[in-house]
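Structure ticket #2291
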Amino acid sequence: MTGRFDTKLLPEGLRATGYRADGAILAIDAEVTDAKVICPGCGQRSSRPHGRCVRHLKDFPAHGRAVQVRLSVQRFRCVEANCATKAFSEQVPDCLACRYGRRTGRFQDLAAYLGRAMGGRPAQALGRRLRFSLSKDTFLRRAASRVRTMGCEPRVVGINDWAWRKGQRYGTLICDLERRAVIDLLPDREPATVAAWLRQHPKIEVVARDRNGGYRQAISEALPDATQVADRWHLLQNASDAFLAAVRRAMPTIGRTACSAALDPGILTAAERLQFEGFQRRQQTNVMIQRMGSEGVPIKRIVRNTGLSRGLVRRVLRGEREDVFRLRQSSLTPWFPLLEKHWLEGCRNGAEPWRRLRSNGFQGSLRVVGEWATRQRRAEAAIPHGSSKCPPSRRIFRMMASGRHHLSKTDSIFVTQVEHALPQLAQDRRLLDAFTSMVRNCEEDWLADWLDQAKASGLAAFSRGLSADLDAVAAALREPWSNGQTEGQINRLKMLKRQMYGAAGINLLLARLQHSA
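Resolution: structure written out below.
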């Protein structure tokens, strides 16, 4: 089927002169409306026609059919006798079709967009459904062919490393912090490579970085007048690591003193002392009720003598006073002595005591015994002193760094014991709190005093590192810039790299990073 029509089916600059539908292909005849007839050799305009040629261009599919544009291009002879170019074709604008290209400009742009947004194989699968007969390699080539150029020179940048392969090979990402966009990717993190890139951009005034010594050296060599800003998140992370190291060094002392010593009420706060005294009173009441019950005093008389409720006296006599949950069934009550015997023998999971009770005639379910075992474990954990097992160093670090007002009663009392037994570790914790507050509130004036106090503490090595990079640390407390935007771009880079199974080159990664924002 053939015909002629005037409807604009093609991009601006092309005029359709006819079409032919042949199965799954729609062929459209077209010509250029405003082409330049200038010789590429000498630059002279020509008016001597020399025949025509046809360029076959692929365009957007239409109505379920692949579209092929048959572009009629006129040829001309050069009017300059001494020109080496004897004949040439009229120039088609690059927005319509690039030189020697076999696709329209808008089709090339769509292929590049799909390649950047989806990658090779997903774009190929989608293109097959949309009648795009393009391979995955074509999508990736188009995606990597267009890298954005900066409209103006950056003034504030962030630099950080990223892993080609973790622990083996690293690259460098450079981000424009003002425009929140990736500028470039470098193939490694060597100071010479970073310094060479910085020399090409002399208008940079501020560089945000982590505490990598190589980046500090590169910036100092290439841009000595630029302000270096240490990343605040890394400062807090390094301070936490230094305090964790101090806790680990003190673990033998913590195990010998804090975990085995009896609790001294004098080291508690007022609120903790009230809780502990209440715990002691409940323990004394429990002992009194259990002694009266062992002497055969009836429950009614115990209630009358003590003034306690009947339910509370029953729970104490059953051993439920410190439990978290109530018993749902009473079938286990006659078996409490045997259960406690098995518990003291080391049966702590619920299943083994249940099997032993079954062998003695118990008819209840495993769930009843399991709930009892859970209550027993929680009751033992609620006892604030006399713990025989020391928590790991990382948990002690978290408890001490969190502050006692954020902890449970048990953890708060344990932290109190540790700080009472190790005054130096308590001082290190106070220094950590002071540094965290200083960074979060950007209090640059307190930095010098903090460094003086930390010289003789467990954070001495960390304070020496801060002193060696003092200008960048002070700028972090003074400037509003940080490397958080760069870290976010690196997370996007990791996601894109894993989507392509780590097989993408640096140009493709940069193109996908810049265009997927």
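Closing remark: The radius of gyration is 39 Å.
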